[in-house]
Structures are given as structure tokens and as C-alpha cells.
Amino acid sequence: MESTFSSPAEAALQREAGSAGLRTPLGDLDRVYELERVAGFVRDLGCQRVALQFPDQLLGDAGAVAARLEETTGSKMFILGDTAYGSCCVDILGAEQAGAQALVHFGPACLSPPARPLPVAFVLGQRSVALELCAKAFEAQNPDPTAPVVLLSEPSCAHALDTGRTQDEGVRAGRLRARRRYLVERARDARVVGLLAGTLGVARHREALAHLRNLTQAAGKRSYVLALGRPTPAKLANFPEVDVFVLLACPLGTLAPQPSSGFFRPVLAPCELEAACNPAWPPPGLAPHLTHYVDLLPGSPFHVPLPPPDSELWDAPDVSLITGDLRPPPAWKPSDDPECSALTPKPQLELAESSPAASFLSSRSWKGLQLRLGQTPVTGAVSGRRGIAIAYEDEGNS
Fold this sequence. Notes:
By secondary structure, the chain is an alpha/beta fold. About 25% of the residues lie in helices and about 10% in strands. The protein has helices at about 10-15, 30, 35-45, 60-75, 90-95, 130-140, 170-190, 205-220, 235, 250-255, 270-275, 355-365; strands at about 50-55, 75-80, 100-105, 120-125, 190-195, 220-225, 245-250, 265-270, 385-390, 390. α3 (about 35-45) packs across α4. It is globular, with a radius of gyration of 27 Å.
């Protein structure tokens, strides 16, 4: 069964999880993966079980690297070919499941501190760099030697500390700034916010999640925490009642879904929600964008506490730049009208406040599974159906 909107059923069963990429020649393994430094790291700790974490594009070299390290160190190596969210974050959970005493992370890394202590060594890789060509490209694009210039490089080129080509990012940066201002306006108009727990291995993620929930509550919005792993348009489309999503992840993971236009609702960074819900943020002289949620928490120089309820910041007129409507103040904000100081008794069954999520759930024909504890007889496990939903093996070709 296949059509314009679906692929053959066999393709889903034969599809591989990721491309292993080109393999590194055996003679270059020691240099590219810094095996001598990694072996010294394992010997100094005296580890007998070590986890090796590779991104998808480096899995083709994983077996050769593990075999070389086992031969030189005598320790048992475990290859982690999957992560809970992004390959740039250290997979502490996978290492603990393997009983590893240390972890070696290969490839691009966000260098975020792990949630639990574990000895970690980072191997960013060493890509060959033609310094003479880099110097000529730099001189051609920057003829003024007195002009200040910021040099950025990929992690695999950090050993050379010089860029292979130059590229003017001024136009793209202007578009990104405009999009971020648009996302802040969308967050201010939103009534329901979905908080995506994109990482569970980076330190202080629980504290950051509590901070974001407090922000939405102070701004009169409702928030729901969703643990979906890597966010995709198909996953997030299952929650149409959510107006905007906020991704709580490492700095690299936070920026990943921004360029994509396939999401049904916009995906924001934590700092954009901070700018939308905290009228005192950002602090003077700071653009409203930070890459790491830790910078928003107490103890950071960029942290700005919420103003008190009687602050004039909550009373400032706020007009949506998207709809043109005047946004009302938060529901908890007391009114200055003396006629509103007394409470009016309501009938017992009258609905005082409606929840958008509850209203949407009540309109659904399917509302979940019933527990039925003690009402279902216990039976032995049996073999289920094999295949995918559009073509099970016992259905034939019909």
C-alpha cells in the first residue's frame, strides 16, 4: 500500500537509524581521535569499564576506535550509539546503564556540565586545515587590518585556532534578530505554553524547569511539561491546544529547531520566554537572547527577579505587535477600581475559570485508557502482530 502521501511499507522496516559517514583510514585514527590522550585518561583513572559516545556521522569508526583502546588500555569499552536527546550532550544515563566508570565523548560537544558527576573526556576531532589558504581568504574579506574582527571556528578545527574560509553573517544575523523579536511577541500573546524537557543530563535542568513554570504563572499563562525526546513537527502537532513551545536543552540543542519552518507552533528558547513574561528583563545593555538556560537562574549576572505584584512594570500598556490588540494585565494583578474590591457570591455549579486544555480534552472522543484495577484477569503473554499499522504480516497484500 503506497500513494503520494506514503512510502512503501517495507521502507520503514529496512530504514537505518542514521548514516555512519565515511570511515577514517586506520593510519589516521590515532591523530583524529587523539587515542594516546584518551588512553592516558583511562589509565590515570584506573577504569575497567569505559563508555564511548559517538554521533551518527562517526559511528563507522566506533568499532575500530574501541578495539584500539581495549588493546592499549586493557579496559572494556562500550559504544553508545544512541542518546536520549542530542549527541552534543554527554549521555550520563547510557553510561550508567552500562556500568561505566568514565565516558569519552567524541565529536562536536556543547560542553554542558552533566547532571551527575562522572569523569568525562572530550575529543572534538582534528580536521586538517590549510593555514595559508585561510590567511588569504581572511585578507581578501577584511582588507582593513585595524578593524575589529571576531574569529569563530568549528570544534574539529580548534586545534589550529584559525577559520578555513570567511563568510559575512551580517544579513543572516539581522534576520535571526527579527525572528527572535517575533517569537517574543508570540509568547506574549500565548495563553498555553508547552515546556519541552529536551535534556535530562545537563546540570540544573530541574531548577530551570521550575523557573520557567514560575514565569508563565506570573504572566497569567498556563504551562504543561512535555518529555518527548527530540522535538519533531509530527510530535508537537499532537498538542494543538498549546500556543508556543519552549525547548529546555543545552546551548546547541536550543538553537537546533529555530531554522526549521515545519513546526505547527513556534519553538522558543528559554530567554525568549523570559523576555515575554518578565517585564524587568533583559537587563540594560543585554540583547534579549542567551544560549544557555543557566544564565537565567539565580547566581548568574544576567538573572533578573520578577518585579513585585505592586510594581508599575506590570501596569505598563502592552499592545500586541502581531494582532494590534491591547493585552490585559495578568489575572492575579489587583484592580484599582474600588467597586471591584468586594467579592460577588456565585452559584455552586457555575464555572469560574475555564482551562483551554481541559476544554479541548472534553471535546475529544478518545480520552485515554482506563486503569480498571482489579477488574482485568491476569493472562499469559502471547506473540503479537508483526509489521507496521498499514501492512501487518498476516494481512497479505490486500
